[in-house]
Design brief:
With 280 residues, the protein is an alpha+beta fold. The protein folds into three domains: 31 residues, no CATH class; 146 residues, D-amino Acid Aminotransferase, Chain A, domain 1 (2-Layer Sandwich); 72 residues, no CATH class. Helices cover 30% and strands 21% of the residues. A hairpin with a 4-residue loop joins strand 10 and strand 11. The relative contact order is 0.16.
Length: 280
């Protein structure tokens, strides 16, 4: 029996679980001013249990937050929200659409040309309690739903710009390319200078052109992250328009392996400067 199933589903049980994950992954105690240490500390700050954190984690309700903060025009359009397995089975899905669960990450189906939909997969999604699987309290109590959206800018998939914000200020940008087939990445500072590391994915072999909408993207990230000590704002751009994908509190569920490992020191200095975690 795994530690995850043995520990009680309480804040205390979740804390023990995540400290154990950290120790097993990094073979050290989380007592440094580094990126992964910061995520672990923030995971147990009071704001993690706030209803606002859960709102932005739900892929349906995050769109209300985006609309209030920056405007509805930055939301990916919603074709349908299916609130039960019966609705999901009966729904006439468009021939070209993206199907996702609202209550978990990593659940996605791309329907490109009317091909059959894997309903067994969707059944598993409805049966998934992502909080129990990950012990991420941001997902605690989220109801299983399916959201149907168009392809962003009709691209398959578009470049994914992930802006890391600390105390409401954008600090670092991760660009993920070919995310679902052969993911590679490039990291930049906010002046679009390339950074010498990647996080979990191989480095992209070439430089990514600076997006023409970078200033708008940074402004959106600044406004959307203002209510949180740390937030990753995930955006899409076609160099004319910008859409918000997700707002992420704990990338990779708090375990991020930098390539090379020294990259974590560089990223931590860029993100947090010299300010100790939790200081004013």
């Amino acid at each position: 029996m795994s530690l995850r199933s043995l520990l009680p589903h309480t804040p205390w049980g979740d804390k023990v679980f995540h400290y154990y994950r950290f120790l097993r992954a990094f073979r050290r105690w989380p007592n440094q001013q580094l990126y992964n240490d910061m995520l672990l500390r923030l995971r147990f700050s009071p704001e993690t249990d706030y209803s606002l954190r859960r709102q932005i984690t739900d892929k349906e309700f995050v769109k209300d937050y985006i609309r209030e903060k920056v405007g509805a025009e930055f939301n990916i359009p919603t074709i349908a929200v299916l609130r039960s397995l019966d609705e999901a089975r009966a729904y006439a899905y468009p021939d070209r659409c993206v199907i996702k669960s609202t209550h978990a990450w990593g659940h996605v189906i791309f329907r490109r040309n009317g091909e059959p939909i894997d309903m067994k997969k969707i059944e598993r999604w409805f049966a998934t309690d992502h909080y129990r699987r990950t012990r991420d309290r941001s997902y605690y109590g989220l109801k299983p739903k399916i959201i149907v959206e168009p392809f962003v800018f009709d691209l398959d998939p578009p470049p994914d710009y992930k802006i890391f914000c600390w105390r409401g200020e954008p600090r670092m940008i991760l660009v993920v390319l070919d995310r679902f087939e052969r993911p590679r990445e490039a990291n930049y500072d906010t002046n679009w200078a390339r950074l010498p590391f990647s996080v979990s994915n191989p480095q992209y072999e070439h430089d990514v052109p600076k997006p023409q909408t970078l200033d708008l993207m940074l402004d959106l990230a600044r406004k959307l992250s203002a209510d949180f000590p740390f937030l990753r704002v995930d955006l899409y751009s076609d160099d004319k328009h910008v859409l918000v994908g997700e707002l992420t509190g704990f990338p990779n569920n708090g375990i991020n392996f930098f390539i090379p490992p020294e990259g974590e020191v560089i990223a931590s200095r860029i993100l947090f400067g010299r300010s100790p975690i939790g200081s004013n």
